Amino acid sequence: MASGAPLITPDHLGPKVDITVWICFVVSGLAVTSKVLTKLGRSQRHVRLANLELDDYILLASWAFAAGQSISVSRQVDAGLGDPISVLPRDRVESYEKAGYAAQLLYICTLLTAKLAGCLFALHLQPHSGNKMVVRGLMAVNSVWALASLFVIAFQCKVPRTWAITSDQCINQPALWTFVEAMNGATDVGLCILLCSIVWALQMAKSKFVLLAVFAARMFIVIPIVFRVVYIYKADASRDSAEWDPTSKETNVAIITAILMNVSLILTCVPFLKPLMENLKPGWSTSDVVRGVGYNIMPGRSTIKSGQYAMGSVISGQSRNGEKKSPMEGIKRTDAFDMESRSDEEVFDHSSSRLKM
Length: 357
Known about the structure:
The protein is an all-alpha fold. It is 63% helix and 0% strand. The chain folds into two domains: 14-272, Up-down Bundle (Rhopdopsin 7-helix transmembrane proteins), CATH 1.20.1070; 286-356, no CATH class.
């Protein structure tokens, strides 16, 4: 049987976009699932839905937006993304424009919800009042940025065909996306610095630097942001010439957008991965972990290891109500720990009674 035409050619790059988009989406989906399962707790008896917090639902919404964006890009591929625009009929070009229009809006929604989930995580770390105000201010900035971006993108082309991004009736695309991505990068860097400053005050030893490294990794989001802006400028460079081919030149933009969007989701989930939580667990109070970070203590296991005790607050020398505590008060066991763990004596007595029977 004769082999068919090559799947990917210089004049048919759509499959490359599809493969990249869905690989990125699956990886981010695994990260989101791991975070949610960690919050639910892997109890031997039942799953605790009550452990899910607002940031978990926002992150799930972000993943849903990412799914919609990925589907929209696949619709673009079906309509001709990666193929020369000269070979596409008008109805397919219009389908390409509408799918791209939806993908742009869903891209902003995904980024916003991922950022808000990260900000809520910062609030769960019980920062000082000054840092709380900064976190809330950052949430407000993110919301204003997203709303402004959505409004401009929604009306980027002349009404009523606001989706006609290949026409000459649209605003300057490189200028639009330079503003959007500049604010995207600035808010991510701000969140990274804020999380690192909060974690620096945690009562941890070596584990503190592990968490600092995890949060500092968010700085790397700037790299795909820069590449995305560069590819947008390249795709729009020949707009005024007869050789302009948006459906072919947008290929790299679609790929880097998928990478950027899903990396943002992954970086939001990384602090919740179970191996990291097990490493950090001794430095947190059980109630802080269950309520804020989300690691559920397993029945019959204690968080006290190597002489370390669960602390009353994750912030050094400060209780949850803002009162200063003496160093000795800081090592009291919390009520949540007493309720959710069993002492070694109870386990020993239970085992002895079974042997006597």
